[in-house]
């Protein structure tokens, strides 16, 4: 008895990404690009992947999409113990410190989570589920942390110009 051998040698991987330049975004022609996407493509091609699909998603769907099999991998997502219980991670490819976006001239002299915690008149906005929330809490911030429910809402054009 002989077993038919498939001649299809296509290895396909679907990558999810969020709109977060310079790590990943969609060009006007619909092509996904960015540092994380380029790196993932290089590694995948090196191991024999012949077809790569890109799926734009939101931050809140990154983990659940891998878990549900809607895509095979995603970029970017920091490794945490909680997330590691849900999905497997590669070796980290980035080491990035947190930074703040403050008013011109930094009138409140905010340069760390600790400096934020020391001021009652400072407020920190954080996207829900981001690792920065844990960093802020560990530095003593509590009530002065606000989290967005829609992580992609910061991408909308403001209704008034500054």
Automatic annotation (TrEMBL):
Keywords: Signal. Residues 138-162 are annotated as: Disordered. Pfam families: SBP_bac_3 (PF00497). Residues 147-162 have a biased composition (Basic residues). Residues 19-108 form the Solute-binding protein family 3/N-terminal domain. This is Amino acid ABC transporter, periplasmic amino acid-binding protein. InterPro entries: Solute-binding_3/MltF_N. PANTHER family: ARGININE-BINDING EXTRACELLULAR PROTEIN ARTP, MEMBRANE-BOUND LYTIC MUREIN TRANSGLYCOSYLASE F. Signal peptide: none annotated. Coiled coil: none annotated.
């Amino acid at each position: 008895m002989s077993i038919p051998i498939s001649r299809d040698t296509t290895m396909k991987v679907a990558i999810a990404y969020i709109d977060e330049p310079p790590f990943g975004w969609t060009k006007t022609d619909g092509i996904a690009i960015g540092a994380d996407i380029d790196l993932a493509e290089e590694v995948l091609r090196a191991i024999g992947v012949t077809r790569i699909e890109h799926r734009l998603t939101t931050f809140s769907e990154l983990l659940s999409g891998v878990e549900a099999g809607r895509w095979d991998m995603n970029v970017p997502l920091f490794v945490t113990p909680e997330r590691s219980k849900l999905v497997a991670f590669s070796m980290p490819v980035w080491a990035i410190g947190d930074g703040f976006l403050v008013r011109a001239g930094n009138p409140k002299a905010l340069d760390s989570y600790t400096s934020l915690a020391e001021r009652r008149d400072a407020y920190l906005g954080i996207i829900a589920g981001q690792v920065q929330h844990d960093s802020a809490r560990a530095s003593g911030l509590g009530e002065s942390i606000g989290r967005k429910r829609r992580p992609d809402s910061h991408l909308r054009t403001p209704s008034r110009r500054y």
